[in-house]
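To: structure desk
From: M.T.
Subject: fold request, one chain
Message: Could you run this one when you get a chance? Sequence is below, nothing fancy, just the single chain.
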Amino acid sequence: MSYLTVLTRYALKTDLSSLSESVLFSHTPTTMTIFDAYPKSNSFHFLLLPRITDALPEKHTTNLAALLKWDKDKAHECLKNIAKDAEDVKGMVRQEMLKRFGFEWPIFAGFHAVCNVSFPVTHLHLHIIASDFFPDTLKNKKHYNSFHPKLGFFLHLDDVLSWFEATSSYYQAMAEMPKAQYEPLLREDLVCWRCDETFKNIPTLKEHLRQEWQKDLDRAKSRKRKRDATDRPDETQSMKRPK
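Reply: Done. Structure tokens follow.
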């Protein structure tokens, strides 16, 4: 199955039982969420796809620009369905963060302004990604800048939804999504999304991000130890013989 069309083929499926647990994470009547095959988070990276149905034809789901060029009300309804299901996925991710690591860190949900920075995948997909951007699969500046939450190439779902509440002229301008406006952002300097420090190369940036995440983990472990110590009964007192 060609990687360029695999998302479309998934979205066309009415029976998802053929998809393995290593591919499919969850689904609803209107969307499906799969594991990203090339995750750019060290922990959690999912793609949420609108499912192709009679109510959502394939030709309007090529990418975000194609959806926004469709009937405005129908596009809005599609994105609201995506947002609802994305919140459910984010909730499951937060639970898993707490279970496995004992703390939560930011999760971003959004679209690439130009799809796809590595492969021209032919189906709209929302990235739901945890912010620990230091996996082995994050290899270059384009990878990192395409997910930087403040740079502008990564379009947060909430921001896209806000376009529908703006004036008609603003909506039309944003819906154009010209490549010439967004593609140069991928060549911007490597800047830490947390502290705004600039780095010369990907390895040093990733090591910085790893260290910052490790500090958060260590603080969470320290808080847990303190809570456990507070909750633990005084063993000396409990072993005393009652008078």
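Reply (cont.): The radius of gyration is 21 Å. Let me know if you need anything else for the meeting.
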